[in-house]
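About this split. The held-out portion is used to measure sequence recovery: a designer receives only the structure tokens and must propose an amino acid at every position. Recovery is the fraction of positions where the proposal matches the reference. Here is one held-out target exactly as it appears in the evaluation file.
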């Protein structure tokens, strides 16, 4: 540092890069992973019936997370819901 320059205080704490979590594992990852796994096993023409009470967040947020995951994976999946369940199925072309 040169003469007359002041050190500006840090606004945030630092940490070693080795301790920084890598990748994006959002809070919906577990349920989305389970839904996709079941979709890989379900017969054609069958919808999964996911109880809304078991979702850790709103059905809209889980549906959005599922939509992001299926687009990323190049899958065609459709959803519907009522007051009790989120229905998810593989769309056929």
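Reference sequence for scoring:
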């Amino acid at each position: 540092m040169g003469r007359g320059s002041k050190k500006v205080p840090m606004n945030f704490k630092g940490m070693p890069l080795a301790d920084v979590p890598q990748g994006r594992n959002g809070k919906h990852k577990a349920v989305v992973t389970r839904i996709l796994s079941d979709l890989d096993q379900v017969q054609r023409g069958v919808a999964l019936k996911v109880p809304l009470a078991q979702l850790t967040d709103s059905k809209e947020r889980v549906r959005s997370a599922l939509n992001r995951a299926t687009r990323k994976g190049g899958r065609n999946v459709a959803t519907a819901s009522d007051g009790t369940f989120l229905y998810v199925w593989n769309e056929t072309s």
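Annotator remark: The mean pLDDT is 87.
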